[in-house]
Specification:
Number of strands: 17
Oligomer: single chain
Keywords: Lipid metabolism
GO cellular component, one term: cytosol
Protein name: PNPLA domain-containing protein
GO biological process, one term: glycerophospholipid catabolic process
Structural class: alpha/beta
Pfam families: Patatin
Shape: globular
Radius of gyration: 25 Å
């Protein structure tokens, strides 16, 4: 018997035993129930032992998977990418319509772990409250921003948007430390288990290592453990879990039900509709912008990459070379082309493939009319893969803390078979394993996906770890994610009075952010000056740059030569908001410095696990950052500035 046949036989035995047990319970036959219970446990144990053995040797596909799949290649798209794809989706009667509001407006949700997810919840509910969320065309996310973006995009009907995003409270004086008044919408200790921010109460470094160990005991391959842990702790409570069988996901994801049925399943009839999570489209629900998750692709791999990856590399380089990787409900891949830059001279990039075939072996012949046929990948590319890979910087923390106890933790970095859309089907461009990493390792604001698409109006939520301050030389210090966009390395303190703390990117050719410049350096100082002035006057750190000229950036596939409007919203203390909090709330925060000393700039690692009050305070602040109609020191209100982007 083949491996597939053995697995399917054992799985069928589990199903049969479960059916027999259910029938015995229904019949009320105690003896039959006891016998069926023993049979079910025996069948399940046999199946689990079999798949655990396989997970240590050969990856296997989910039960009942078709032998082959028909996929599409989507060659390197430019800013009209989604227009072109949408035209195809709406070409037939009954197709989805109105899914890409015009003119294009983009919302960027930066990385930052639980801090970013909490801020994103506040931003999303503010835009919904203002009636603007349905006018947002794209959401681009990195890391913790994706922890919010993925559940929001795919949330099932069982969870309402009110529950998912939480209550809008624009008057901070109404907030209460507990629910003594019985008004739960104001109580900081009240957080729905289905609110996006609730995920921050379930995750933590300890929680992740415990989940990783449990999943490994259940047969999950080492290089997939991080992503599956994200699936269990973050996505499963929202009804978006992997539904593991044979230690691999049994669920795909796609765009709308129409896209799933008329593009994906039309050429793959063996795939079932119920095997896909699709974007929330139900009547009465707020429109979901088109989701883009951003990760980093490495070749050569970094020096601390797992030994298995280093062994497959044609070239070892202590300085990793990063490439941008995107995954959306429709496509996954590296958009720009990089000829002969991959393993053994393979090409990289050139566009996208359908997510449901990502990780497959390469076609042996060039695609015909952008279609190809390949054996079904062993594991289904799941929502946990896009949310997990984009946030996998925490793997480094697990390695540092636990590799002496669990040596296999060294192998947790997500790894996938990859082949290029550029020149696919040629002898050299076969699939080979590559290392993937957190999107924030390369670029943490999530703005590049918007600039590549030519989105003219962008709201950038910078969920910064670093609050702004002025150093001893009078230099405004900002978070590391912002300077590289303008051609500067992150702030570095200098003993030389002639240095302003920000060196050109060119001064460090090995920096992982060396490819990130997209704006003129001359625009950087006015930006941080205006952000500082807004914050130091007691208001939100918000500033709108208009007519910001975009520079060409080949690494990210950005053509350049056009201008954009960007509303920068920087995570920073807001004294005018904080001062309105009730005395008890401020008192409780003051006497608990372990949790609140750095509010709202919770630490990305040491404060990964947040409680309900930490989440709610940050989310309420970010709702205020978007929707407050208060003008401070003559500056336009936050609401006015946000409305000006639509």
């Amino acid at each position: 018997m083949t491996v597939d046949t053995v697995r399917e036989t054992l799985w069928q035995a589990v199903v049969d035993a479960q059916t027999a047990l259910s029938n015995a319970i229904t019949a009320g036959d105690t003896r039959a129930r006891n016998e069926a219970t023993i049979a079910f446990r025996s069948a399940r144990t046999s199946f689990e032992q079999h798949v655990t053995h396989l997970a240590r040797s050969t990856p296997v596909a989910a039960p009942n998977a078709p032998k082959t799949l028909n996929g599409h290649v989507w060659p390197y798209p430019d800013y009209t990418e989604m227009q072109a794809v949408h035209e195809q989706a709406t070409a037939a009667p009954g197709a989805d319509a109105g899914l890409f509001p015009m003119p294009f407006v983009g919302l960027c949700l930066s990385g930052g772990g639980s801090r970013a997810a909490s801020a994103a919840m506040g931003a999303l509910r503010a835009l919904r409250y203002l009636g603007l969320l349905e006018k947002v065309t794209f959401i681009s996310t990195v890391s913790g921003g994706g922890w919010a973006g993925v559940p929001y995009t795919f949330c099932p009907d069982a969870i309402s948007d009110d529950e998912l995003l939480g209550p809008v409270v624009l008057d901070p004086s109404l907030l209460t430390w507990d629910n003594a008044s019985g008004k739960s919408q104001y109580a900081l200790n009240m957080l729905s288990p289905h609110a996006i921010g609730s995920l921050c109460t379930r995750v933590g470094i300890t929680e992740f290592i415990e989940q990783v160990v449990e999943l490994r005991d259940n047969g999950v391959a080492d290089e997939m453990l991080w992503n599956r842990a994200v699936g269990k702790l973050i996505l499963e409570p929202f009804g978006l879990g992997d539904q593991l069988a044979s230690a691999v996901p049994t669920m795909y994801f796609s765009y709308t039900p129409w896209w799933r049925d008329n593009v994906v399943r039309k050429t793959n009839p063996a795939l079932k509709a119920q095997d896909f999570y699709t974007v929330q489209m139900s009547p009465g629900r707020t429109h979901r912008p088109y989701l883009i998750t951003n990760s980093t692709f490495f070749y050569p791999p970094p020096a601390d990459a797992p030994s298995a990856i280093r062994g497959r590399s044609a070239v070892f380089d202590a300085s990793a070379d990063p490439y941008p990787f995107e995954a959306t409900p429709m496509v996954a891949g590296i958009p720009p082309s990089f000829a002969a830059q991959g393993n053994n001279g393979r090409d990289l990039g050139g566009g996208f493939v359908d997510p449901f075939v990502f990780g497959c072996n390469a076609p042996t012949t060039p695609p015909v009319r952008q279609m190809f046929n390949v054996p079904t990948p062993a594991a289904r590319y799941a929502l946990s893969d896009i949310a997990g890979t984009s946030s996998s910087a925490y793997v480094d923390v697990l390695i540092t803390r636990y590799s002496s106890w669990f040596p296999w933790v060294e192998n947790l970095d997500p790894t996938y078979n990859y082949w290029p859309v550029l020149n696919v089907g040629t002898q050299k461009n076969t699939a080979t394993p590559y290392l993937f990493g957190d999107g924030g390792i390369m670029e943490n604001t999530a703005i590049m996906a918007m600039l590549r698409r030519g989105v003219p109006n962008i709201l950038s939520v910078l969920s910064c770890n670093q609050a702004m301050y002025i150093d001893s030389k009078g230099v405004i210090v900002v978070d590391d994610m912002l300077p590289p966009l303008f051609g500067y390395l992150p702030y570095h303190a200098s003993d030389d009075p002639g240095k302003n703390g920000y060196k050109p990117l060119s001064s460090d050719p090995t920096s992982l952010v060396r490819y990130n410049q997209v704006f003129d350096p001359a625009a950087f100082l006015p930006l941080i000056t205006q952000l500082w002035q807004a914050a130091s006057s007691g208001g939100s750190a918000i500033y709108k740059q208009t007519g910001l000229v975009v520079r060409a950036n080949p690494r990210f596939g950005i053509a350049g030569g056009y201008s954009v409007n960007v509303l920068w919203l920087y995570n920073n203390p807001v004294s005018s908001w904080y001062s309105q909090l009730p005395f008890q709330v401020r008192f409780e925060m003051d006497i608990d410095p372990l949790r609140f000393w750095n509010f709202p700039n919770y630490d990305t690692v040491t404060q990964l696990n947040l409680d309900a009050r930490q989440v709610n305070l940050l989310a309420h602040l970010w709702t205020w950052n978007f929707a407050s109609d208060v003008s401070i020191n003559g500056r336009p209100s936050n609401r006015t500035q946000v409305l000006s982007m639509f």
